[in-house]
Input
Amino acid sequence: MLQTEFEFILPKGYVDQEGNLHRRGVMRLATAADEILPLKDPRVQSNSAYLVIILLSRVITSLGSLEVINPKIIECLFASDLNYLQKFYNRVNENGTRSLKMICPHCQQAFEAAPETLGEFSATP
Output
């Protein structure tokens, strides 16, 4: 079965108006419409950098206890969280989600590592 939703944890987290911190979320695989329709948005047409804001607001299905994810929420993320989500989006949608089962040579603990970029691996707890 094809996995279409992927959990993530933001490095810093989104702080809502009440001061609540939201770090855990779910992102779904992007569709062709997710990548095409935002191009018609006037905010994207006037500033192409806004594309990532619209795109992430479409594919993030949950973030903490928030009921709705919209561009305003994505705009308020810390830069490090936005960067994390862009990389996560690319890994999920372009590179796939394959992982390697590995064993630490020092402690013999088993873990999974997913390729981030050519030659680099990130351990998944």
Observations:
- The helical segments are 32-36, 42-46, 51-59, 71-75, 79-95.
- The chain has one domain: 5-97.
- The radius of gyration is 16 Å.
